[in-house]
Amino acid sequence: MTGTGELTYRRVHRASPELLFDCMTTPEHLAHFWGPAGTSTPVGDIVIDLRPGGVFETTMVNDADGSTYTMRAVYAEIHRPDRLVWIEPGVEGGMRTTITFVDLEDGRTEVVTHQTNVPEAYLGAEARAGFATSLDRFDVYVAGLRDAQEHPRS
Fold first, then answer.
1. What are 36-86's pLDDT values in tens digits?
2. Residue 100 near residue 115 (C-beta atoms within 8 A)
3. Domain at 5-149, CATH homologous superfamily
4. Cα dist. 81→97, 112, 121 in Å?
5. Is 6 left (phi over 0), alpha (psi -120 to 50) or beta?
6. What is the C-alpha to C-alpha distance for residues 106 and 108, in angstroms, rounded to an integer?
7. Which residues does the UniProt record annotate as the domain Activator of Hsp90 ATPase homologue 1/2-like C-terminal (predicted)?
8. How many whole angstroms separate alpha carbon 102 and alpha carbon 123?
9. Which helix (H) or strand (E) holds 145?
């Protein structure tokens, strides 16, 4: 018997909800951080059709052996810059990911990623650690964007 569960991840960034929302919905941004450490996601392997019912697809490449993993989802809700929801229909009957961007009104935004109907294989410590490395990569990318805005090159 297999089961499903829920996961919630929280991160606070020094960035606006608008910028963070755009990072999560633009291939040119996603290519810099999408996927766990040790993978890359070429911009040409990211499909975004940002509308309810639109496609969200990424193909991550394992940097060590070149193997690939494609994530296929369908957008369920799009409320820029507060909320983004997609469903992966091929994962255990529909894993749902909800990302909420909470403006802390001090120049920071809390990003809450809540997943439901998460397959048992994704609930283990190793899978959660891999997901956390993706969030770490997002942290680094957003910090780089902020630094570039604060210290533009002449």
1. 999 999 999 999 999 999 999 999 999 999 999 999 999 999 999 999 999
2. no
3. START domain (3.30.530.20)
4. 16, 13, 31
5. beta
6. 5
7. 14-142
8. 25
9. helix 125-150
